[in-house]
Design a protein that fits this description.
The protein is built from five helices and ten strands, in the order ααααββββββββββα. By secondary structure, the protein is an alpha+beta fold. Strands 1, 2, 3, 4, 5, 6, 7, 8, 9 and 10 form a ten-stranded antiparallel sheet that branches.
């Protein structure tokens, strides 16, 4: 029931203040607006939007990196091409100087009359003409290549700048969604705390789940997480050793059934707050400290199906999911979830 290492910011500090207010006999004011199922749906929708925005941002960040590398590569090619042109220009100068020394501007007819071996002179002149033509062709080719490289560099640099601007706009959008999500999370948590304080569960909410459910027989109870307090660990907050495995996740994170089974109980109040217990053959799994449930008692569930949304209800110091694997539906019959998952080829 104990969450993982305390994280900075309001995500884990606020629950501590909330517990203090509850101990003093008061609850934080819940803003008016979405009630019950609507609050859960808002969190689920914003959670998905935030996830999509994050994926787009990461994809954009990688694209910026690729385009930046491409622009730098073009710059290196351009520098290399300019060096080659410089070498060719020097070669052209050497040939011109050699021509001048061997006859300069004297017409070729006069050179032949003055030469002791006209035939040899003609062979040498032809060789010079051929070398001059090859050099001019090489210079023209190199200049065309330089223009192409310069144009490619401009395009790569423009694409890089455009991607940077697009990603900057995406950062603003992402922050806006996350701000709304944070507010919706605490509204949902406030409603959950009110339900627990009243000892009356709000009932199941129906949320739109992903289109492609898992094809695996067993999955972890949340998709993305950090492991915190483990099974049988000691802690001052427990009268006995820890009875399950904690997953550090934010409020409103979809919690899913680890395998196919049937919901045997949905309850709220007590140390576990809002909780769901599912039977899988000879084993039972518990999902505790929830902010909302999405299933009813007696309902059949498949592996990966959402059974609720994580929260920090009950005896909890911050947002997390307390998960147990039991031999019976009741506390005290737990087994190590990590080993249980490992036997089913699921690594936490």
């Amino acid at each position: 029931m104990r969450p993982g290492p305390r994280r900075t910011g309001t995500s884990l500090v606020f629950p501590v203040l909330l517990c203090a207010l509850v101990a003093l006999g008061g609850l934080p004011t819940v803003s008016q607006g979405a009630e019950g199922p609507e609050a859960s749906a808002d969190v689920a929708r914003l959670y998905e939007e935030a996830s999509t925005a994050t994926q787009r941002y990461e994809a954009g960040r990688k694209a910026v990196s690729v385009q930046k590398a491409r622009a730098r590569s073009m710059e290196r090619l351009l520098v290399r091409e300019r060096r080659q042109i410089s070498v060719l220009h020097k070669d052209l100068g050497r040939i011109a100087r050699a021509q001048y020394r061997s006859g300069g501007d004297i017409p070729i007819t006069a050179q032949m009359l003055l030469a002791g071996n006209p035939e040899k002179l003609m062979r040498g002149q032809r060789a010079v003409w051929q070398a001059d033509l090859a050099l001019n062709n090489a210079v023209d080719k190199s200049r065309r290549a330089e223009r192409r490289l310069a144009d490619g560099q401009r395009r790569a640099a423009n694409a890089w700048r455009s991607l940077k601007e697009s990603n900057a706009r995406l950062v603003i959008l992402k922050k806006g969604i996350e701000s709304k999500l944070e507010a919706a999370r605490w509204q949902l948590q406030g409603q959950a705390d009110s339900s627990v304080a009243a000892g009356k569960c709000r009932g199941a909410v129906r949320l739109k789940e992903p289109k492609n459910p898992t094809t695996r027989a067993w999955v972890p109870p949340v998709e993305k997480y950090e492991l915190s307090a483990g099974f049988d660990s000691a802690g001052e907050r427990w009268s006995h050793r820890h009875t399950g495995q904690d997953f550090a996740v934010d409020i409103g994170t979809p919690v899913r059934s680890v395998g196919a089974g049937r919901v045997v109980s949905v309850s709220c109040g007590g140390a576990f707050g809002i909780e769901v217990v599912v039977r899988h053959g000879g084993y039972y799994t518990q999902y505790a400290h929830l902010a909302a449930v999405t299933v009813d008692q007696g309902q059949k569930v498949r592996a990966g199906q959402w059974v609720g949304q994580s929260g920090t209800t009950g005896n909890s110091t911050g947002p997390h999911l307390h998960f147990e694997v039991r031999l019976t539906p009741y506390l005290g019959s737990g087994v190590d979830p990590a080993k249980w998952f490992a036997e089913r080829h699921v690594k936490l």
